[in-house]
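User: Can you model how zinc ion sits in this protein?
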Amino acid sequence: MQADTVIHARWIIPVEPASVTLEHHALVIHQGRIIDLLPSGQAQAQYQATKTEHLPDHALLPGFINSHTHAAMSLLRGIADDLPLMDWLQNHIWPLEQQWMGEEFVKDGTDLAIAEMLLGGTTCFNDMYFFPNITAQQAIAHGIRARIGLIVFDFPTIWAENSDAYINKALALYEELRGQPLITTTFAPHAPYTVSDAPLQKVLELSQKLQTPIHIHVHETRHEVEQALADSGKRPLQRLQELGLLSPALLAVHMTQLTDAEIALLAETGVHIVHCPESNLKLASGFCPVGQCLAAGINVALGTDGAASNNDLDMLGEMRTAALLAKAVADDASAVPAMAALQMATINGAKALGLDQEIGSLVVGKAADVIAIDLNHLETQPIYCPISQIVYAASRQQVTDVWVAGKHLLKQRQLTTLDIAELKIKIGSWQQRLSA
Ligand SMILES: [Zn+2]
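Assistant: Here's the modeled complex, given as structure tokens:
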């Protein structure tokens, strides 16, 4: 049979079924989809491939899904460190954004983020930022998959003057992006403390009508919860519940403040949590009790947040931090084992984004979003268990190849759709402007 690409690998970790590692197998890709997964010998006998890849020291796995990003904020990486969330936002990030935000900022910042994500094995990102039209345009240009957040705030920014204007722009962009093969959208009201009830209700109504998820920061810090209690007598999650937002269409990012009753409520309503451990650690925001949430049956995905609060977009690093932190928070070394961390970075992300029929595991029929990690480095030897090496020991420089929908976007560590030299010049120019 004819196929576009056959990839022979030392190990294939399909993620579904869980904890399976296939040895000396091949993944067969045709027209952007996985059409077979079988022993290498059989693949050689059965398939005539246009391209054949041999990866004798590599593990092949589904691409990482970064379930919470602000891609363009990569241009603000390292500009204001070591501050708590509200001081960081109000006195540093928001004023800088007010001064510099525009199409060029978002274009160049997004390119930097996409380059970094592809180099680290991320094949899909779930974004929330101003000028989402530009983020989408750059994702399309470089071939990465993305769920683009249609941002909503109460207050005016260069993107829109009030919540009605944000929502009108969101609807226009939703229409414009329909039919894009790799791009889908979410409604992205920023947070309970920046979006009032009326626009949240409007977003909910549109989300139901258009079958589009809602992506929002919730319970990021204790301060957020205390402030809401002081202002309204309600915790933000209770307010969202009363507005009718808690459902499997909701992606609640951060969730560092959770009572046992709230965990039960999230499980019951099917809300997805997007855990961003490194951003939470860096801003001293608090800890999401991930072990307890997973045990309660909540789907927990993983995100880096923006590079201004992380400061990298490294999903391998994020998985390791998530696994380690969960053990410390639960006081239990068996909380979030390596496989659970890998699921959070792949299939759980796909479920949270509503894309699990399409991506998140190497299963026949799904899109060929695939990465290869070279384990033949001293740092990942000996190899008793490839999953353990990937989660606990590998670094992102070991990601050698990335395919999105069968397209080879990273080839032996070379990006095929981005010019790094040109990108560095643009970033240098932003560095000068932003630090002036
Ligand atoms: Zn965020």
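A couple of observations from the model: The chain is about 40% helix and 25% strand. Residues 68, 70, 217, 253, 305-306 surround zinc ion (CB under 6 Å).
User: Helpful, thanks.
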